[in-house]
Specification:
It contains 15 helices and 22 strands. It is α/β, with parallel strands linked by helices. The longest helix has 21 residues.
């Protein structure tokens, strides 16, 4: 594979340093209308496999048609994504016996519990409990929290994030302050299942988790969606869930253990898992429903290299009906991610107005991001456009509606050559690239670009930083923290007619310029940096494509 030689390409052509001269204006009216429509109560929070999905898919097809796109899946606008919905009911408290005093954890307030297994009921009885620290097995780092312990049939209690999440800077066994894939909850459940654990329970702590307990409560109760795959996920643990930090401390105290001391010990290489000498019991029944959800795909076919594709993505789904706040039980998902979906439509309009590029440009609105990136994962594993011929692209998950920012943040910076292409575009706007303000929250692994990245496709995930033109970094940080505390995954995430879309437009101009650069320059095949974990699979795919 020809490695992209960036200095010559970037410095030798103004096309790489600024928005293309024929760039159509991003329609603010489109951003407002699409966001307001998708986040209205009529769409019931856009949960997959509900009437809200039917309305959403129909509306997106209508907007893609009007924008000038063609059906993106062999003459069809959608791709079926087979789903299985599991709703836990009659959830008994988690009970822990054998310690100084019994410990009981109530559903929703103290803990949440569910399963990936497609079975009518779950019952775990007297399962010995083992504290496995951060629950990480990383041979390349010489780290194994499961070394020397057999957890088959047992319940493992796991800390959230990475061992070095409190480290300042980026030095440490797990990249310091920045969360790695090992710190994400899907990895921890996956690894526990590989070791045969009957149950895997993560201790919730707001700072390293990056969200408070209400987010866990709203996201992990009610219908839970997974891909409907052969085997019904019987290779997974019977029970997965979370417990409140205070209840974890109570449990460890009952077992005669010091939770704080063991948490500190778990940060060091060589930590040995600790049996707590207590047993856990739990049970609940499952209501199971199988039904396909849909990804929506539109395309602007290319001219001379139409078999090569540039990809834009955003997830259309949200949580649907959720825990009521002040009588409102619809999680409308206005910012997350009606805005990103609106950006997808606005970019489709802009590219269509500019006319076809040499390469095809695809616009993918995916389902079930909130359930674990399921729609994008399914597309990546069953691509309409082969991944080896997908040049790269941009993922959008929440646009900036607080006003223009002086900076632009590359989430998970230091991974792909797309970053080198986007830097001069940002600079041409008079903005600078800033470090990610909260790398410990692991945003790189929490949105749909990750589904493509892990299979080799470079995808940009970046947006406005916190240094606002009006109010500076203090105002930007306050707005971000206010959103997480009061609206993220809550009914209060609603459309606000007072939103300032100027920052969103600037970011969309960046996304447009990057996509057009990739689509019109057929010699460009950006790769991952040699140190990136996705470089190997990309090299293999591209070699096969040649």
């Amino acid at each position: 594979m020809r490695r992209l030689f960036l200095p010559a390409l970037l410095l030798g052509s103004a096309a790489f340093a600024q928005t293309p001269a024929n760039s159509p204006a991003i329609s603010v009216e489109t951003l407002k209308t699409v966001t307001q429509t998708l986040s209205s109560d009529a769409y019931e929070g856009r949960a997959p496999t509900t009437p809200g999905e039917e309305k959403t898919v129909a509306y997106l097809i209508e907007r893609f048609k009007a924008a000038g796109l063609q059906p993106g899946n062999q003459g069809q606008w959608t791709q079926d994504v087979p789903m299985v919905e599991i709703t836990a009911g009659e959830v008994a408290p988690l009970t822990f016996t054998g310690g100084k005093t019994p410990v009981s954890m109530a559903y929703r307030t103290d803990m949440v519990a569910g399963t990936y297994r497609v079975v009518p009921s779950i019952s775990v009885a007297n399962s010995p409990v083992v504290f496995v620290g951060y629950g990480i097995t990383a041979p390349e780092k010489g780290w194994d929290d499961y070394a020397g312990v057999d957890v088959r049939g047992k319940t493992v209690v796991i800390l959230v994030n990475d061992p070095d999440w409190q480290t300042k800077g980026s030095t440490g066994p797990f990249e310091g302050r920045a969360m790695t894939w090992y710190g994400r909850w899907p990895y921890k459940y996956e690894n526990a299942a590989k070791h045969g654990a009957a149950a895997a329970i993560i201790v919730h702590e707001s700072e390293p988790a990056a969200y408070g307990w209400p987010v866990v409560q709203s996201s992990w109760t009610g219908p839970q969606i997974g891909l409907d795959e052969a085997g019904d996920h019987m290779d997974q643990s019977q029970l997965v869930g979370w417990m409140q930090l205070a209840k974890a401390r109570e449990l460890f105290a009952s077992a005669g253990k010091d939770f704080a001391a063991l948490s500190v010990a778990a940060k060091r290489k060589g930590f040995k898992a600790v049996p707590l000498g207590v047993a856990m019991s739990a049970s609940f029944r499952n209501t199971i429903r199988r039904q396909a959800s849909k990804n929506v795909i539109g395309v602007l076919p290319g001219t001379s290299a139409k078999e090569e594709t540039v990809l834009y993505s955003a997830h259309w789904d949200h949580l649907g009906r959720c825990d009521a706040v002040a009588g409102d039980d619809i999680c409308n998902g206005a910012l997350d991610n009606a805005t990103g979906t609106a950006g997808l439509v606005a970019l489709a309009e802009a590219h269509a107005k500019a006319g076809p590029a040499k390469r095809s440009v695809a616009f993918l609105a995916v389902t079930a991001e909130e359930s674990g990136l399921l729609g994008s994962r399914y597309y990546a594993e069953h691509p309409v456009y082969p991944l080896a011929r997908t040049v790269g692209g941009v993922n959008m998950d929440g646009l900036n509606v607080t006003g223009r920012a002086r900076d632009f943040v590359l989430t998970g910076a230091g991974k792909s050559e797309l970053e080198d292409l986007v830097r001069p575009i940002v600079a041409a706007q008079g903005r600078r690239i800033s470090p990610e303000p909260t790398p410990e929250r692991g945003f790189y692994y929490r949105s749909d670009h990750f589904s493509f990245a892990r299979l080799g496709v470079p995808m940009l995930y970046g947006d406005s930083g916190e240094d606002l033109v009006a109010g500076g970094a203090a105002a930007g940080r306050a707005a971000a923290e206010d959103y997480v505390a009061n609206r993220y995954h809550k009914p209060a995430d609603q459309y606000d007619p007072k939103w300032d879309w100027a920052g969103a437009v600037e970011d969309l101009d960046v996304y447009y310029a990057l996509g057009r650069t990739l689509a019109d320059n057929t010699g460009l095949w950006p790769n991952w940096y040699p140190t990136a974990e996705f470089r190997g699979v990309r090299d293999k795919d591209r070699a096969g494509a040649r």
